[in-house]
Every structure is written in C-alpha cells, then in structure tokens.
Design a protein that fits this description.
The protein contains 9 helices and no strands. The chain has 234 residues and is an all-alpha fold. It has one domain. It is globular and about 50 Å long.
C-alpha cells in the first residue's frame, strides 16, 4: 500500500511538473508574440511614409482579412499541419497585427499606451490566475461570453455604419473588456484541461501554439478596450 501511494504521488508530481512547463511554454509564446506586435507597430509608427501606405489602398481591410484567415485555418487544420507551419502562421499573425495596430502610436500618447498595457496586464493576470486555480467548470461562462462577443461585433458594425455614436462605442468597449476578461479565464481553464501528458511532443507543441494564439487575442482585445476607454489621445 505504501509503495502504491508513493508511486501515485510521484506520478501526480510528474504530471504537475509537465503541466507547469506546458503552461510556461504557452505563456512564453504569447509574450513573444506581443513583443513582436509591439515592436513592429512602434517601428511602423516611426515612419510617416509607412503609415501613409497603411492608410491608403485598403491595406487595413486586407490585413484584417488575412488575420481572420490565419485564425480560421489554424483552428480547422491544427491536427493536420506540421509544428513548424503552426509556428510560422502564429508569428505571421502577430506580425500582421503589428502592422494593423501601428496607427495607435499616432493616435494615443506613448505614456497612455504604456499605462493601458500595465492595466491590461493586471486584468489578464488576475483572470488567468482565476482560470488556472478555480475548480468550477467555466464552460457555461465561455459559451455566454462567446455569444456576447458575436452580438458585440454586430452591434459595433451597426454603430460604425449608422449611428456613429462615441458614447455608445465607449459602452461597447466596456462590454468588450468584460467579455474578454471572462474569455481569458475560460481559455486558461480549457488549455489546462486539454493538456495530456501522454500526447506526443508534436501534438503538445501544436496545442501550445493554439493556446498561445487564444490568449494573445484575449490580451490584445482587452488592451484595445482599455485604450479606447482610458487612453489619452494626442
């Protein structure tokens, strides 16, 4: 009995240690992607000519469609593409987002961007801790937030096309912040639950990339919501 207890304890310790390394890999990829996005955005913002190129010829729409295509492709084909392809698509996505977000360095002050990034990191860290430690199943929360996200996207387009109300857009930004805070906790729990110590290293690596992509999008959307709510415009 004692030997069996010791084996079970050692097995659980190995699983916990592997899970910690796996989650560290996910967060590491997300952090590097955010650094790439921020670096490219800052570089683009330093060149007025590049920003003019971004503003013209529908470049923003093309980049947005490209990001949507990458996310859809990765989600649908993650089990069939190679680990290298998954990483290339992930880094390409973060680079494109850097191009697409470069105008924020022109619209908002640098100090404001830094402050909003710090606030977002605090929110994200709190919700990530909640999602990792809670024993409650957050599936219903994730489903509710996803439905809310669809409604938010539709309402945002309606406001942009028809109403053009700044106050209404601010309210939508506050709702967006709440939605992505909830999705952060849900995604962290989902990433943790889907981890399987018996999976091959290739499958585990691809899951880590997909998890990093989910958290990257959660963080970025939270940051944009905070920036729209509290950012100081130039």
């Amino acid at each position: 009995m004692a030997n069996r207890f010791n084996l079970n304890t050692q097995s659980e310790a190995v699983v916990d240690d592997n899970l910690r390394r796996y989650m560290t890999s996910v967060f590491g990829k997300m952090f590097l992607a955010l650094c790439m996005t921020g670096g490219i955005s800052a570089f683009m913002a330093s060149s007025p000519r590049m920003l003019e190129m971004m503003a013209g010829s529908g470049s923003s729409i093309i980049l947005m469609l490209a990001t949507f295509g990458i996310v859809i492709y990765m989600t649908a084909r993650i089990n069939k593409i190679s680990t290298e392809t998954a990483h290339i698509l992930f880094w390409t996505y973060s680079a494109i987002m850097g191009l697409w977000l470069s105008p924020i360095f022109v619209v908002y002050t640098g100090k404001s961007i830094a402050n909003c990034f710090f606030v977002t990191s605090t929110f994200f860290g709190g919700m990530a801790l909640l999602g990792y430690t809670t024993k409650r199943d957050l599936t219903s929360v994730g489903n509710f937030m996803f439905v809310g996200l669809i409604c938010l996207i539709i309402t945002s387009f309606v406001n942009i096309i028809f109403f053009k109300s700044g106050a209404f857009q601010a309210m939508l930004s506050a709702i967006s912040l709440i939605i992505f805070m909830g999705l952060t906790a849900y995604d962290i729990q989902k990433i943790k639950q889907f981890y399987n110590v018996l999976e091959t290293s290739e499958i585990s690596s691809k899951r880590a990339v997909l998890g990093a992509l989910s958290l990257y999008m959660d963080f970025l959307n939270m940051f944009l919501a905070v920036l729209r709510l509290f950012g100081d415009r130039k």
